């Protein structure tokens, strides 16, 4: 770039900046800025034409004011006018102002594009570079449309100067990232690739950034770059630090270019050409050898540059995964970094070894560093390094060291950072299941996991242990005995109670022969935890109690007394109340054979991929998994075990399936409810606020009724029933295929609603009336559907809803009326 002479200095700008810096308060600064803005505005609007120097000075002042955080709403045209100047300093200030202040949607873009075209065609390298920098800085789609076809021509032209080629390559990269559909290389592809052979290292460095980005999107078009990249890398690696003096950084030749070349090669598989592959292997061996050499400088810059190349080389070795010798050497080199005093090196070494551990060639070499990794897990101060150490232990685990690694991870869990505990729990659960030869060890591990980190044990973990216990007869008795002992602890986590209630309800009979774990002792132990648990756990325990009545008839009276108490059959929670009433009735009226059939032991679950493993696969990166993501994957992966990951409570306790659907069942296609305690703000919004995801105001009668029917299935053509039934609910009655019942059977239709919430309420030769309802605690919602069974349309069809007599004072009533006549 041309030098700026003393005559080009702007004294007025220097004085203004000095005045701003000397202001004692914000008010004084604003006052001085407003004064200067008024002066600049008057100069721009004055009758006297300003020369290039004055325009440049005032535009610089506006730019400085903008950088101080003040809005600038004028001066843009003057900056555009500076682009037509033949002086470098004036053109430079004009492009700078436009790059910073002009919006990509500005009306001046067309004028700016014309000025840029003139500079690109001027063949003046300084002006061309300024224009290319402006295009890259603005990067708008309009500029991409205008110059995407011109810049590749400049880049590969034989008479283009090296500095312009560098700017053109980086400008084209910017446009490709913002508008990839407009940057079509086509005929320029091979010529752009051959820039890797350019004699100027700066051109090669800029071009390789462009080629790497293009190769990631279109690898086949740019595959010829592999041999050229290997050739260039070989020349750099084999050169001495004195050969590339202008590009040697602290005795390391061209470190940035070397890293970019290695990264480009990671976009492709190993070279098929034997000569190219041999040359590349030789380069990688040279890089590993240089890592072993004593440092040529004690400066941190030297070690950083050297290690940057080394880690990129190791990444390439891991990517190819085809050279056992290189993989083992890379593992050994990384092992030396595990005890390095620099934290960043230890982190990178652990991260790279995680990937190496998955290779069959280097897995055994990685395992030799297990003690070092365990020590890092225990002693590292940085939580991110400890997390990488945990990831590496997980990756290097196999049958030979599973018990040691699981024990160490369990030990670390007691003091682990809260941010990584849930992921640690998942990994321990996966390893315990994957490498369990003795399933009694697996049961012990999971129960210990719940004891240590119960708050972080997700549903998938205790669902899974129950599935495995049910599927394996040889471990059921041991599981019952172990969980019984675990429940005797004074402080017992709720997840332990869930596992205990389920396993004892299914297999408590296997340990009932011991007087210390007799049926009544088991029941009393479980019931002692009842009052400390949440509603879902209490519901599970109630199901375990009814199972006890089937397994141990001698406990029937005691359990019926518990079910009969007011705290159960009059419980404010409708789920607990329903279970208590139904179980009490079932145990009272059902014969022994019927009870044994209804409450028979759970059948084995189908063998499918563990939902815990599926949950861990949701991670975005190695070890980088947030609690939010885990919760999302928990919801998404709920049925990966062939439906077995629905709660074991709902899957196993057959008694609860024998009656009405759970109040938590989503009968109307609604996925969440507002908190029960949230008081309604108005009568019209009571039910909407409780049952809707967002609490909208009460809908008006003008709302299209299709909005309320979008969650419902339309009746098929083959169905005789005109009632539109709810979708997605297993307990909903299917559309009737029987002829319409006579009017005398209307009472029988009504009686069916004692046990179900949906169905046909009334039907005759003219009309069919169906009902769809949902209840949550003291709130309810009903839809009535009217089906026209005749061939003519009903005229003046109206409905009324009334709340008769005594019910008026007991029921808070809200009616939303929508007609839907089929």
Automatic annotation (TrEMBL):
Location in the cell: Membrane, Coated pit
Cross-referenced Pfam families: Adaptin_N, Alpha_adaptinC2
UniProt xrefs under PANTHER family: ADAPTIN, ALPHA/GAMMA/EPSILON
Entry keyword annotation includes Nucleus: no
InterPro entries: Adaptor_Complx_Large_Subunit (IPR050840), AP2_complex_asu (IPR017104), ARM-like (IPR011989), ARM-type_fold (IPR016024), Clathrin/coatomer_adapt-like_N (IPR002553), Clathrin_a/b/g-adaptin_app_Ig (IPR008152), Clathrin_app_Ig-like_sf (IPR013041)
Keywords: Coated pit, Endocytosis, Membrane, Protein transport, Transport
Domain Clathrin/coatomer adaptor adaptin-like N-terminal: 30-588
Protein family: Belongs to the adaptor complexes large subunit family.
UniProt name for this protein: AP-1 complex subunit gamma
Signal peptide: none
Molecular-function GO terms, alphabetical: clathrin adaptor activity
Chief location bin: membrane
Topology relative to the membrane: Peripheral membrane protein
GO cellular component, one term: AP-2 adaptor complex
The keyword Transport is annotated on this UniProt entry: yes
GO BP annotations, alphabetical order: clathrin-dependent endocytosis; intracellular protein transport
Clathrin adaptor alpha/beta/gamma-adaptin appendage Ig-like subdomain domain segment(s): 757-810
Compositionally biased intervals (Low complexity): 650-665, 725-735
Binding positions for a 1,2-diacyl-sn-glycero-3-phospho-(1D-myo-inositol-3,4,5-trisphosphate) per the UniProt entry: 11-12, 43, 53, 57-61
Chain segments carrying region Disordered: 624-666, 717-744
């Amino acid at each position: 770039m041309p030098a700026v002479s003393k005559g080009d200095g702007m004294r007025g700008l220097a004085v203004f900046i000095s005045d701003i810096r000397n202001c004692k308060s914000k008010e004084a600064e604003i006052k001085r800025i407003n004064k200067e803005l008024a002066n600049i505005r008057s100069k721009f609007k004055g009758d006297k034409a300003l020369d290039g120097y004055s325009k440049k000075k005032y535009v610089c002042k506006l730019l400085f004011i903008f950088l101080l955080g003040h809005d600038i709403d004028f001066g843009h045209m003057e900056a555009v006018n500076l682009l037509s100047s033949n002086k470098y300093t004036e053109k430079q200030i004009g492009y700078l102002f436009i790059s910073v202040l002009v919006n990509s949607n500005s009306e001046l873009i067309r004028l700016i594009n014309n000025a840029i075209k003139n500079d690109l065609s001027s063949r003046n390298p300084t002006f061309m570079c300024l224009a290319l920098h402006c295009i890259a800085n603005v990067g708008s789609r309009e500029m991409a449309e205008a110059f995407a076809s011109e810049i590749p021509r400049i880049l590969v032209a034989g008479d283009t100067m090296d500095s312009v080629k560098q700017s053109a390559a980086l400008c084209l990269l910017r446009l490709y990232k913002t508008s990839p559909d407009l940057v079509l290389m086509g005929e320029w592809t091979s010529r752009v690739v051959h820039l890797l052979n350019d004699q100027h290292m700066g051109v090669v460095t800029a071009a390789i950034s462009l080629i790497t980005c293009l190769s990631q999107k279109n690898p086949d078009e740019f595959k010829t770059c592999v041999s050229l990249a290997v050739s260039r890398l070989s020349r750099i690696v084999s050169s001495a630090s004195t050969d590339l003096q202008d590009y040697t950084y602290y005795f390391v030749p061209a470190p940035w270019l070397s890293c970019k070349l290695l990264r480009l090669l990671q976009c492709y598989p190993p070279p098929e050409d034997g000569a190219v592959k041999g040359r590349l292997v030789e380069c990688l061996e040279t890089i590993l050898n240089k890592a072993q050499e004593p440092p040529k400088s004690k400066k941190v810059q030297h070690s950083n540059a050297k290690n940057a190349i080394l880690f990129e080389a190791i990444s390439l070795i891991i990517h190819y995964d085809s050279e056992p010798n290189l993989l083992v050497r890379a593992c050994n080199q990384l092992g030396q970094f595990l005890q390095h005093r620099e934290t960043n090196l230890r982190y990178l070494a652990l991260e790279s070894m995680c990937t190496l551990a998955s290779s069959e060639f280097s897995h055994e070499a990685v395992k030799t560093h297990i003690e070092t990794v365990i020590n890092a897990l225990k002693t590292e101060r940085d939580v991110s390094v400890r997390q990488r150490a945990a990831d590496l232990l997980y990756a290097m685990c196999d049958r030979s060291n599973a018990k040691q690694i699981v024990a160490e991870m369990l030990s670390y869990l007691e003091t682990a950072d809260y941010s990584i505990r849930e992921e640690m729990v998942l990994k321990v659960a996966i390893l315990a299941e994957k490498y369990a030869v003795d399933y009694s060890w697996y049961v012990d591990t999971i129960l210990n996991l719940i004891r240590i980190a119960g708050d972080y044990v997700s549903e998938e973990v205790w669902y899974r242990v129950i599935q495995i216990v049910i599927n394996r007869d040889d471990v059921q008795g041991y599981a019952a005995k172990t969980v019984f002992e675990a429940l005797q602890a004074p402080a017992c986590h709720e997840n332990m109670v869930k596992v205990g209630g389920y396993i004892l309800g299914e297999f408590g009979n296997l340990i009932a022969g011991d007087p210390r774990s007799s049926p009544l002792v088991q029941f009393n132990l479980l019931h002692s935890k009842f009052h400390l648990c949440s509603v879902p756990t209490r519901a599970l325990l109630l199901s375990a109690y009814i199972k006890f009545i089937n397994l141990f008839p001698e406990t029937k009276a005691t359990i019926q007394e518990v079910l009969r108490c007011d705290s159960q059959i009059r419980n404010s929670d409708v789920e607990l109340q329903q279970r208590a009433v139904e179980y009490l009735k079932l145990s009272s009226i059902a014969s022994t054979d019927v009870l044994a059939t209804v409450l028979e032991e759970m059948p084995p679950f189908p063998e499918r991929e563990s939902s815990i493993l599926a949950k861990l696969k949701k991670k975005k990166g190695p070890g980088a998994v947030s609690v939010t993501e885990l919760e999302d994957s928990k919801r998404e992966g709920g049925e990966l075990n062939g439906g077995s990951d629905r709660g074991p409570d709902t899957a196993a306790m057959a008694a609860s399936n024998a009656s009405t659907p759970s109040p938590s069942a989503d009968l109307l296609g609604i996925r969440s409810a507002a908190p029960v305690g949230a008081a309604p703000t108005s009568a019209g919004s009571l039910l909407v606020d409780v049952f809707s995801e967002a609490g909208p105001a009460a809908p008006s009668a003008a709302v299209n009724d299709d909005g309320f029917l979008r969650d419902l299935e339309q009746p098929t053509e083959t169905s005789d029933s005109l009632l539109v039934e709810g979708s997605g609910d297993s307990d909903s009655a299917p559309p009737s295929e029987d002829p319409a019942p006579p009017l005398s059977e209307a009472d029988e239709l009504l009686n069916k609603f004692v046990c179900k919430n949906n169905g046909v309420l009334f039907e005759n030769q003219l009309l069919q009336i169906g009902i769809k309802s949902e209840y949550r605690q003291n709130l309810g919602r009903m839809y009535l559907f009217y089906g026209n069974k005749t061939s003519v349309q009903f005229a003046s069809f109206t409905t009324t809803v009334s709340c008769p007599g005594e019910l008026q004072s007991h029921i808070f009533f809200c009616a939303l009326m929508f007609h839907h006549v089929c």
